[in-house]
Structure formats: C-alpha cells, structure tokens
Amino acid sequence: MDYIILDIEFNGRKFASDLPMEVIEIGAVRLNEQLQLIDQFSALIKPVYFAKLNKFIQKKTGILQTEIDEAERFPKVINDFQQWLAQSESCLFITWGGEDMKRIVLDTRMHRLDDQYFLHADYFDLLKGFIKHKGLVNDISVENALVELQIEADGHAHRALDDARMTSEIFKATFEHLDFSQIQQYKDSFTNAKERRLIKNAIRLLLSQKLEPTWPMFEEHFLQKTIKTDNPKKTAEIKQYFLEQMTKQKNDKTTD
C-alpha cells in the first residue's frame, strides 16, 4: 500500500460571500510501504469564482495571477489527479486536518462530477495523530510541528506540493507512534466549528441556570437567533449534535 500525502490551497476571501471557495492548487507526494518518496503531483487550478486572486492569497501562497490565468479548470486537474492516484494498487491518504478532503469533495460536487472516489477514500488525519502522540491540547501548524520534531523546513509554506513534502517528513518521523485505528472517510458536515461551539456553550449556560436543556427550548431561545438553518440536513445535524452534547454534559455534571 502507498501513502498519499495530500495538501490543497484554496481561494480564501477577506470578506464573507455566498459564493463558494474553490481549490486553486493540489499537491501530493506518494510514499511506498518503506516510506520512500517515489512520486509527486502538482497542479494549479483556475477558479470559476473569484478568478482574480486577492492580495492576501497572493502574498500567503506566492501564486502569481498569471499562473492562475494559465491554469486548467478543476475538472481537468481532478481527472489528471485521479489518473495519477490510480498508479497505486491501494493507497491511504494522509492529510493535516480534515479540510483537504472536504474541499475536494465540495469542488467535485460544484462541478457536477462523480464524488464517489473521494467519499470512499480512506484517510488519516495526521494533525490529530500528532496531537495525540505529543499530548498537545491545541492544533499546531505543519511548520511548528517540524520545529517540535527538530526537522528543518524545506520549501515554501502554503504552496501545496511543498506543504505535502513537509507533511511527509512529519509522517515519517512519527509513523511508529501513530494510531492507525483512527483511519476515516469523509463525512458530510453541515455545521462548522463555531456553530458547534455555540451549541455546547448554550447547553452549558442552561445547565448553570439549573434549567433542563430541551430541544424546543434551545430552538426557540438560541437556534433561531444565532445559526442560519435554511437547510433541513443542517437542522437535523444540529439537533443530533445538541442531543449528544446535552447527554454528555449532563453525565459530566453528574460525575463531578
């Protein structure tokens, strides 16, 4: 089995917008079972929306507008990428966090392409693995993880291929300490971290006031005021998360 260390860059925006963010660069390296680098993939992508990169993204990535203007669109690049992936009889994706798989799935859907390959692809979140191995509390960047491991960074941070290479060095250095029972597949999520934090805080507030946190109460006093729920799937996910967190916090309070 090969290991595909994946990194993507996407077009962030300074101001909020209803238009989707898009992948603008895919970088990946292929390691064999002996953790030797045997191949690599790199491609820029010309976005449909925000085709003109803002100054923040240009400064962060070093990607030039002329390079983006000359790049292929997502359907061509993702097809090339899947052909490159097919050279491995089997593979496990290694990512730093869960955003890379999410953005590829979302862009695949945006372009009305078949998303089944990436939905069923196994991946290991090296960020979580590294945090568990080192006993850390907060997330850490690839650059700081390299410092922690006393590995000299080689490349330009926030360029997909260079980040994939640097992530592969972390993977190799920590391989024997990683818990591969945590391999997962992409799961659709309609809420973000901020919204899930609001839910937990609301339950905590209700409990502190000696009130029973019920879904109707949360829906009336918190949900309608703080979270946009025009998607029924999102509402269902919020309700499920609320019920899980309510049970967890009540149990924690009982055992205190």
From TrEMBL:
Residues 2-180 form the Exonuclease domain. It comes from the Bacteria. Keywords: Exonuclease, Hydrolase, Nuclease. It holds the Pfam family RNase_T. One of its GO terms (molecular function) is exonuclease activity. This is Exonuclease domain-containing protein.
